[in-house]
Amino acid sequence: MTTRIGVLGFGLRSSLAAYAHQPDAGSRVVAVADPDPARRRAAGEQLGDGVALLPDLDTLLEQDLDAVLVLTPDHRHEEHALRTLERGVPTFVEKPLAITTDGADRILEQARRTGTRLYVGHNMRHMPVVRALRDAVLVGRVGEVKAVWCRHFVSTGGDYYFKDWHADRTRTTGLLLQKGAHDLDVIHWLAGGYTTRAQAMGTLAVYGGIADRRDNADRQMPDWYSVDTWPPTSQRELAPVLDVEDLSMANLALDNGVLASYQQCHFTPDYWRSYTVIGTEGRLENFGDGPDATVALWDRRSDTYRAEPDAVLPLRSGAGGHGGADPLLVAEFLRFARDGGPTDTSPVAARQAVAAGVAATTSLRSGGAVVDVPALDPGLTAYFAAGQVAPTGA
Fold first, then answer.
1. Structure-derived torsion over alpha carbons of residues 358, 130, 108, 329, reported in degrees to the nearest 10
2. Where are the domains of the chain?
């Protein structure tokens, strides 16, 4: 039986639709909805004849669908997910789940109330470098984890986040949430716990000083992206509304005693994430986060700097976006939409990444005060821990 898929939004994450559209493997995108005629045309060109090209969610929900991908801008995730879940269609929501903690909680509650399967697109859980770090932690290569650090160097920041809706905090909350949700989720996954308190500082250090602005609603990021734009101060045609930070640093206390930190800079010359995991018996660190990345382990004491680690851990390889993570992500969602069962991603973890990002951003904008993360309803935690199956008699 073919899984019939609808796609809502055909923008920067439209590549996920291509991974879902595998007629020979039993899945087919049958409808794409986007208010932009140019994006609907692009969907038709990429996915071929037989795909209904629709203007909005109302018409999409009139189709006979087995699953839907919500790939709209962040501030629309909550609205759109609530409607697809209400209709009873298994739903993939691109990360972040929502731009507020309350919004994420409403989505989880809607999934529980309706019994509709919910999946969140945290693709980094399928990235080879993250899997190697996680596997090493699980088998005890560093003992008991006590600290996780992440430095995120974002050379693409000026192009990816400061020329369109990403620069408007009403649509993202901020980049500690929008961009950081990936890394916060990975930090939680590696640490085995969730953030309970956050403290952060940040500023609009570079891009706020660029006066050249343009409303880029008629374009998409590939239209202006260029690695030749350097230094960052040479960027032009930035978004009219630009009120998110391009430099931020967060300290996190997790519920299992692990301490974590996350640094994010959007005007570096290189683009990659550096994770460090420190335990009672060793230290892990990745170098690069793409197909050619390495994960190094130090587990012998020394009294000097040692460039050579005690072990280099093997990485799985795969074809497709994000080191092969994107096709694995979509395949897992489609299997879950059809059959249920365990997944490597987690709606609760997605909520906790949002909650940590919101708390850190609140701290950042209130002078660095420590901000508590609101606890999640234990009933929701239990429901998703049980695989989105209501307890007997509930």
1. 130
2. 125-313
pLDDT tens digits for 101-151?
Answer: 999 999 999 999 999 999 999 999 999 999 999 999 999 999 999 999 999
The alpha carbon dihedral of 15, 20, 24, 28 has a sign of negative
Main-chain dihedrals φ then ψ at residue 261, nearest 5 degrees: -140, 150
Considering only CA atoms, which of 38, 12, 93, 129 is closest in space to residue 351? 93
Decide if 145 contacts 137 (C-beta within 8 A).
Answer: yes
Class of domain 125-313: alpha beta
Beta partners for 311? 297
Contact in structure between 282 and 142 (CB atoms under 8 Å) = yes
d(CA 205, CA 364): 14
Closest to 268 (Cα-Cα) out of 156, 123, 379, 101: 156
Q: What is the pLDDT of residues 50-103, one digit of tens each?
A: 999 999 999 999 999 999 999 999 999 999 999 999 999 999 999 999 999 999
| Spatial separation of the C-alpha atoms in residues 247 and 265, rounded to whole Å | 5
List beta partners, residue 49. Answer: none
pLDDT tens digits for range 226-265 = 999 999 999 999 999 999 999 999 999 999 999 999 999 9
Answer whether 128's CB lies under 8 Å from 291's CB. Answer: yes
